[in-house]
């Protein structure tokens, strides 16, 4: 009896220790925990994870479904799991591809500077290897929207439509905000700018982890080649993007406000702006239900028509 009691107590002790370790890990690295949960969600939804060879090295791609090809592109510093709350409503109608962009998630390279050119090379490898020869629809958030517009400019025949979600190829307007916060206060200021004021407050330990990740993660590696980014801006050249563009915008975003979205709409040959109230810079995470409904509605409509060229 005593042996059984001791064994039970030992098991309980091990469980409590594991729980304590899990809590400590979550507090120390909550963003890593979030990433794991998001990627497990994609796997539970039936996404198959594989790799393709890109000029930047092996590139991880998640894929499921049949129908027109829909490519979902995450933002800088993010990974494929960012879309996991949106995908359940898409996989019945589309073949959905979600890459980890080069240098993000599980895609190579794991270290060293990243450039916009490297990210574009990864997208070209993705479409060449998994596009199945038909024009694809890109849905890109933030940096992913920038890449989608650049790809559409360079390869118009391979793009059926672009959905730019709080991102674009124009120079940003909020140079007072740093995407690489140095401390908790700067991280809070950045989060306040990219989220709706009514969204739940972010705990301090998560703000600290944001500071940690941005110092060494993909955003820092992209900033290491910041001067090269100027070569990929399309200020005054958005007219070169021929495929139709849907501009789907979280209205509460203060990092890239609605004035930025309207500027893109005015300069693109075929564009339509749809606003999402009370959503910020990353609406597929902040308000996934509303965002998904707007996205599906947009994709069911005919794309915007080209405006007549000025005489």
Can you characterise this structure?
This protein is an alpha/beta fold. The chain has one domain (about 30-300): 3-Layer(aba) Sandwich (Rossmann fold). The chain is about 40% helix and about 15% strand. The protein is built from eleven helices and eight strands. The chain has helices at about 1-30, 30-45, 115-130, 145-155, 185-195, 205-215, 220-225, 225-230, 260-265, 285, 290-300, and strands at about 50-55, 55-65, 70-75, 95-100, 135-140, 160-165, 245-250, 270-275. It has an eight-stranded mixed beta sheet with strand order 1-2-4-3-5-6-7-8, sandwiched between helices. Strand 1 and strand 2 (about 55-65) form a beta hairpin. The longest helix has 27 residues, at about 1-30. It is globular, with a radius of gyration of 21 Å. The model is unreliable at about 5-25 (pLDDT under 50).
Number of helices: 11
How large is the radius of gyration?
21 Å
Which CATH class is shown? Answer: Alpha Beta
> What is the total tally of β strands?
8
Largest sheet: 8 strands, mixed
The number of distinct structural domains comes to 1
**Overall 3D geometry?**
globular
| Low-confidence segments | 6-26
Task: Please give the order of strands in the largest beta sheet.
Answer: 1-2-4-3-5-6-7-8
According to CATH, the homologous superfamily is Alpha/Beta hydrolase fold, catalytic domain
CATH topology: Rossmann fold
The CATH architecture can be given as: 3-Layer(aba) Sandwich
User: Mean of the pLDDT scores?
Assistant: 91
Helix content: 40-55%
Measured by DSSP, the beta-strand proportion falls in 15-25%
Instruction: Decide which structural class fits the backbone.
Output: alpha/beta
N-to-C series of helices and strands: HHEEEEHEHEHHHHEHEHH
The termini sit apart by 94 Å
């Amino acid at each position: 009896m005593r042996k059984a009691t001791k064994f039970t107590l030992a098991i309980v002790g091990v469980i409590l220790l594991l729980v304590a370790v899990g809590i400590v890990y979550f507090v120390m690295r909550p963003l890593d925990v979030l990433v794991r949960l998001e990627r497990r969600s994609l796997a539970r939804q039936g996404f198959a994870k594989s790799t393709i060879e890109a000029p930047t090295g092996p590139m991880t791609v998640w894929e499921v479904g049949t129908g027109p090809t829909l490519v979902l592109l995450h933002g800088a510093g993010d990974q494929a799991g960012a879309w996991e709350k949106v995908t359940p409503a898409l996989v019945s109608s589309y073949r959905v591809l979600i890459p980890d962009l080069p240098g993000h998630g599980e895609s190579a390279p794991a270290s060293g500077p990243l450039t916009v050119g490297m990210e574009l090379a990864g997208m070209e490898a993705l479409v060449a290897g998994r596009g199945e020869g038909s024009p694809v629809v890109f849905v890109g958030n933030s940096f992913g929207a920038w890449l989608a517009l650049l790809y559409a400019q360079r390869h118009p025949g391979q793009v059926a439509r672009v959905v730019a979600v709080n991102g674009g190829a124009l120079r940003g307007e909020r140079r007072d905000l740093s995407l690489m916060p140095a401390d908790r206060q700067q991280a809070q200021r950045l989060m306040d700018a990219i989220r709706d004021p009514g969204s739940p407050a972010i705990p301090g330990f998560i703000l600290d982890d944001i500071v940690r990740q941005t110092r060494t993660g993909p955003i820092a590696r992209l900033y290491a080649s910041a001067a090269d980014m100027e070569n990929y801006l399309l200020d005054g050249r958005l007219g070169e993007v021929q495929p139709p563009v849907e501009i789907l915008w979280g209205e509460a975003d203060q990092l890239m406000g609605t004035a930025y979205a309207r500027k893109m709409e005015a300069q693109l040959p075929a564009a339509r702006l749809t606003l999402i109230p009370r959503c910020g810079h990353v609406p597929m995470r902040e308000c996934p239900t509303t965002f998904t409904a707007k996205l599906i509605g947009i994709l069911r409509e005919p794309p915007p028509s080209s405006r007549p060229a000025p005489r």
